[in-house]
Design goal:
The protein is of the alpha/beta class. It has ten helices and twelve strands. The strands form two sheets. The chain has a seven-stranded mixed β-sheet, sandwiched between helices. α7 (195-211) packs across α10 (273-284).
């Protein structure tokens, strides 16, 4: 008998993945956590019925939220990851010798424990001496933080439920205060393709555009994301993601990647016209 996992991307579009077996199912204080082993995607995690990462494509997301800002900021020493309980973003950051501390703030301890058990090759990065783990709410953790971080990566899930506070005007303002004078914030911006997702993209861009002097959006192809197309936000107090990008300096670091390249960095900020139009419309409506 064949067993399939299905995720609704809209009321009319569904992604289905044939699975070999279920590895874990549990309900934490915050969400339902399911882990499956599949033929095509390898092991993957679903939170409240939505795939958040798979062995087959997690490297795309993790590399794009990490290496884009790291190739722009000349001296990142202290990093804050909001979410990131799977350890994937921390793993990418640990390739940089200049980084001194990585604070990982994840709300759901069960999610971390499951990732440690089933994805040890990724989650083991949380045991590195440069990583400090906090089981806490990201917004609460940020309150009162001033000029502490060179880079903040918001690696949380969608702007609903227990993570909703991480997509508010207060959250972005708190990130701004927690960053140093030349700090960068990178965050997932969602998919703009389907109508119901477009509104969340618009609202997010408007809030960040109001909060930071430099705000740009870039893209990646991630097969398990809705429509396979995903956006990221780059917000900065000082550095522009193209004008201040130093490709040769980044190449000299010999960072190991499967997706990100210096050429891709430039192309990722070249957006389709319909995306440019919706972003510019929100910028005009300030």
């Amino acid at each position: 008998m064949e067993i399939w996992f299905s995720e609704l991307h809209t009321d009319n579009v569904k992604l289905s993945v044939r699975i070999e077996k279920q590895l874990f199912s549990g309900e934490s204080e915050y969400q339902r956590i399911d882990v499956f082993d599949s033929v095509e995607l390898g092991k993957f995690v679903a939170l409240d019925g939505e795939i958040v990462f798979s062995e087959k494509d997690e490297f795309i997301y993790d590399e794009m939220v990490t290496h884009v800002p790291m190739a722009v900021h000349p001296n990142v020493r202290n990093v804050l990851i909001i979410g990131g309980g799977d350890g994937g973003v921390a793993r990418e950051l640990l390739q940089y010798p200049t980084i001194e501390t990585i604070d990982v703030v994840e709300t759901d301890q069960m999610f971390v424990d499951v990732c440690r058990q089933i994805f040890p090759e990724v989650a083991s990065s949380l045991d590195d001496p440069r990583v400090r783990f906090f089981c806490d709410d990201g917004l609460r953790f940020l309150r009162g933080k001033r000029d502490q971080y060179d880079l903040i990566i918001n690696d949380s899930t969608d702007p609903f439920g227990h993570t909703e506070g991480l997509f508010t005007k207060e959250f972005y303002g708190s990130c701004y205060k927690a960053l140093r004078d030349d700090g960068i914030m990178v965050y997932q911006h969602g998919s703009p393709f389907y109508d119901e997702d477009e509104m969340a993209c618009r609202a997010m861009h408007k809030k960040v555009f109001r909060s930071f002097p430099i705000s740009r959006v870039y893209q990646a192809h991630i097969p398990t994301c809705p429509s396979g197309y995903w956006l990221f936000g780059f917000a900065s107090k000082k550095y522009h993601p193209i004008n201040d990008f130093k490709p040769q300096k980044w190449k000299e670091l010999n960072i190991q990647t499967w997706y990100y390249t210096a050429n891709l960095h430039m192309g990722a900020f070249m957006l389709p016209k319909y995306v440019e139009d919706l972003l510019e419309e929100e910028e005009r409506n300030q």
